[in-house]
Structures are given as C-alpha cells and as structure tokens.
Design a protein that fits this description.
Layout: E1 3-7, E2 10-14, E3 30-31, E4 37-44, E5 47-53, E6 57-59, E7 62-63, E8 66-71, E9 76-80, E10 87-92, E11 97-107, E12 110-113, E13 117-121, E14 129-130, E15 139-140, E16 152-153, E17 162-163, E18 175-176, E19 185-186, E20 199-206, E21 209-216, E22 222-232, E23 239-246, E24 250-258, E25 265-276, E26 279-291
Antiparallel strand pairs: 1-2, 3-4, 4-5, 5-10, 6-7, 8-9, 8-11, 11-12, 11-13, 14-15, 16-17, 18-19, 20-21, 21-24, 22-23, 22-25, 25-26
Length: 292
C-alpha cells in the first residue's frame, strides 16, 4: 500500500516496494561500496565463513533478492538474499583472499544487477609454536622451527660436564679409593691420597741395648729405613743404618744396637714407604734423639 505525504501542498506517493536499506546489521561488518555489509571470520584452519547483510538498491528503487559472489576473481556463485535476512558463504581458504559481491534483482526476463564491490579478508596470524623443554625460547612464531638451547655446564663433581638444556646436573657418586688410602672414598672431582704421617718411633734402653720400636698406623705393609747419626761425643760409629718391615697397623722392632755410651748422643730418623696404587710412596717419618 502506498504512503502519502503533503509537502508544500503537493501530495507525494512513495512506491509500495521501496526497501529498508539495512534491516539486519552485522557487528564488525565492513560496508562495501555497493551498500552490502560483509564480514568474514575464520571457521577452521582451512575454511572461512563470510556473512552478507544489507538491503541496498541494485536497480532503480529495487532491492536485490540474490547476490553473486566471486573469490579471487574465480567462478561466480549465486546466493539467495532477501531484504529481511542475511546469507553466508563458506570459502575454502587458509590465507588471505578477496570476496567480490554483487546484488541482483531477478525478474521474468533475467535479472538486473548492481555494481561489484570487493571485501578483502586478511587471515589472522597463526598462534605461536609451543617449543619443547630444552629450547632457546618457550615459543617461536608460526612457521619457524624451535631451536635447541645450548647444553648446561655442570659444576665440578657432576656425573657429566654438561647436560641437555632443561635437565638438571646430577652429582656423581663418590670415588672408591684403592686399599690403604687416607680415605675410603673421595668426591668424584678429587684424587685419592695415600696415607701420610702414619709412622711413629720410640727408642728405649733395655740393658746395654737399644730397642727401636717403629709403629705403622696405615693399612699398608711398610718397609722402613732407620738411620742414627752421632751428634756428640767421640765414641761409637758415626752412622748406623738398619731396615725393618712393619705390618699394617703394627709395630716392627730393631734390637741389635747398643745404647750410646756416656757423653755420646745420636740423632735418629726412620722413613717408611709402602706400595700404593702401583707406586712406591712415603707414608711417614719420625725422629728422636738418644744419648748415654
């Protein structure tokens, strides 16, 4: 039914089929040059849904009842689109594309169409790639490869000098030392040590003789060299040498020497060695001065 209006005494009648221009707005839509509202959103990694709204005139005062579309200038599709609804098209695309839209009004002889207008779809940036533990960064931009971080330098005493990035250095177990060592075990970055200061000597008088008792406080059998050098007086030998074997944690005695006569003294020294880890090592020394 026509609508009448009086302007300056002249009655004007509007056609009954004059359309409403934008009955169904779309949030975030872009208004194209031909009056259609278009909004394309990503549906999945390979598809985009484009919604077309609006009710522009396509021929004289007539609104369109179909829209034609083309993707990147390709084949044409026809979608039904009346003024009181929206229509949509699924585009098989993973990246950017151009959607061309044209409105048409069908009639008995074909259709009357309006101008084409383009909508440019820009694909959203892909989310960053989550990198595995041990990478240089927790994420990298889409399309890039995660890079492995350099290995971690481990402190002394660790099982290995380095470990892969993201892992923890492990403390190496204690080192087992050879028999007779100063300690049964040592930290892995330290060296085992032979016994040291493990010898003592005590010289006593037994009648006319001297009794030299050499004690070995190590767990290794020892060979000990005894030397007595005259320090004062004129009687007796200038130097006396003896050797004695001393068992582990035991005592060896030298008893075949006379006690110094009056006014004569000797400086004595004993040095003991033992076989340790395939080598001959000194395990201790002791000194004592005796006099008559």
């Amino acid at each position: 039914m026509a609508t009448a209006a009086c302007i300056f005494g002249v009655v004007m009648v509007a056609p009954a089929d004059t359309p409403t221009l934008s009955p169904v707005p779309i949030a975030g839509a872009e208004v194209l040059g031909n009056g259609y509202d278009v909004n394309c959103t990503k549906s999945n990694d390979n598809q985009v849904v484009c919604t077309i709204a609006g009710c522009p005139r396509v021929h004289e005062d007539l609104a369109g009842d179909v829209v034609n579309t083309r993707v990147n200038g390709g084949g044409q599709s026809e979608l039904s689109k009346s003024c009181d609804n929206v229509t949509s098209q699924t585009v098989n695309a993973a990246g950017d594309f151009t959607l061309s839209v044209q409105g048409c009004r069908q009639n008995a002889f074909g259709s009357d169409c309006g101008a084409w207008a383009d909508y440019r779809y820009t694909a959203p940036a892909a989310p960053p790639v989550q990198c595995p533990p041990g990478s240089e960064t927790p994420t990298v931009p889409a399309g890039q490869q995660c890079k492995q971080a350099p290995p971690v330098q481990c402190p002394p005493g660790s099982e290995s000098p380095t470990v892969p990035a993201g892992q923890q250095c492990k403390t190496a177990p204690p080192k087992q030392c050879p028999p007779g060592s100063l300690n049964a075990t040592v930290p892995p970055d330290q060296q085992c040590a032979p016994p040291a200061n493990a010898v003592s000597m005590n010289i006593t008088r037994e009648g006319l003789n001297a009794n030299v008792a050499v004690t070995n406080n190590s767990a290794l059998p020892a060979e000990c060299a005894y030397t007595a050098t005259r320090a004062s007086g004129l009687v007796g030998p200038g130097t006396v040498n003896r050797n004695v074997s001393v068992p582990p944690n035991g005592t060896g005695n030298i008893t075949d020497m006379l006690w110094p006569p009056p006014l004569v003294s000797y400086n004595t020294k004993v040095t003991c060695t033992a076989s340790y880890d395939g080598k001959r090592v000194t395990i201790g020394e002791a000194t004592q001065t005796v006099g008559g």
